[in-house]
Design brief:
By secondary structure, the protein is of the alpha/beta class. It has helices at residues 21-32, 44-56, 71-85, 108-136, 156-176, 209-212, 214-225, 234-245, and strands at 12-16, 36-41, 61-65, 90-93, 139-144, 181-188, 256-259. The chain has eight helices and seven strands; from the N terminus they run βαβαβαβαβαβαααβ. The protein has a single domain (12-191, 232-259), classed as Rossmann fold, CATH 3.40.50.720. The longest helix has 29 residues, at 108-136. Bound molecules: nicotinamide-adenine-dinucleotide (NAD). Nicotinamide-adenine-dinucleotide is lined by residues 16-17, 19-23, 41-43, 46, 66-69, 94-97, 117, 121, 144, 146, 188, 190-191, 193-195.
Length: 266
């Protein structure tokens, strides 16, 4: 092989939930590695803003309105991307939600919400793109799971949906490997994004600022559980995705890569 195996020139990458947070970090890392980008998000305002940053990097970009819980919306989004950018080589299933209530209060709706986006969303968008991957004889799936999927114990519906996402990734890798399609997961650790604002109620209704201050809870978990003692960033996750999307990772499939400063070691 000649050239740098980590570069993505001539590739088109689609990122669900790519408008903000970790998705934005993935989009910018992929664009910096030379990929053209499609951002598939329900929030078009943030998606367009991030698209402007991709253009500034000199890459082609397309924004599509997609709700990953809706298979029809995913198929329509994939068709628009194929028309606009002429192909898809990498699909990053990043869109995700966390439960809005504490484990003491969750009910079946929280499971439906977490499974709908974090698991069925991966299935829907992958299914929309797979016919194209098959036709071109190659493709890369990268599913954003979480270290919460490695071990239960808190955020019950969210953690269960992320464990299921890792399992789905292994099934995709097994089924699609013979068609030259790799499927891997990335498990971010603690990344300070707008998702943390959705955790209202997770820490209970205590008036104790130590309990309700989400940033303080984030920092104290970091200090006690993270060997590297530093928070992870959207860019950190983006760099792992670039690797898994690149030729350098052509023989890696069915894996779940923790990007978590060592919080989980398996
Ligand atoms: N922030 C963390 O600490 C952390 C840790 C581990 C894993 N993760 C995972 O990383 C991914 C990104 O998380 P984040 O922290 O950036 O969250 P975020 O809430 O900041 O961003 C989520 C993005 O997904 C989009 N989205 C949500 N529902 C969607 C739907 N139905 N269809 C299409 N797009 C949808 C949102 O519009 C947004 O752009 C998620 O899968 C999350 O579970 C986050």
């Amino acid at each position: 092989m000649s050239g740098n195996p980590f570069q993505l020139q001539g590739r088109v990458a689609t990122v669900t939930g790519g408008g903000r947070g970790i998705g934005r970090g993935i989009v910018l890392a992929l664009a910096q590695a030379g990929a053209d980008i499609a951002i598939a998000d329900i929030d078009l305002d943030s998606a367009r803003k991030t698209a402007g940053e991709v253009e500034a990097l000199g890459q082609r970009v397309c924004v599509v309105s997609v709700d990953v819980t809706d298979a029809i919306s995913c198929r329509a989004g994939a068709e628009t991307i194929l028309e606009d950018l002429g192909g898809i080589h990498v699909l990053v299933n990043n869109a995700g939600v966390v439960q809005a209530r504490s484990d003491a209060e969750v009910d079946a709706k929280d499971f439906e919400r977490c499974y709908g986006v974090n698991l069925v969303g991966i299935w829907n968008m992958s299914s929309a793109v797979l016919p194209h991957f098959r036709q071109q004889g190659e493709g890369r799936l990268v599913n954003i799971a979480s270290i919460a999927g490695r071990r239960g114990g808190m955020l019950t519906p969210y953690s269960a949906s992320k464990a299921a996402a890792i399992s789905l990734t292994q099934s995709q890798a097994t089924a699609l490997g013979p068609e030259n399609i790799n499927a891997n997961a990335v498990c971010p650790g603690l990344v300070w994004t707008p998702m943390w604002e959705q955790l209202e109620g997770m820490f209970g209704d205590s008036e104790d600022p130590q309990v309700v201050d989400r940033r303080a809870t984030f920092d104290s978990f970091l200090a006690s559980a993270c060997p590297l003692r530093r928070e992870q960033t959207p860019e950190d996750v983006g760099h792992a995705v670039v690797f898994l999307a690149s030729e350098a990772a052509r023989n890696i499939t069915g894996q779940a890569l923790n990007v978590d400063g060592g919080i989980q070691m398996n």
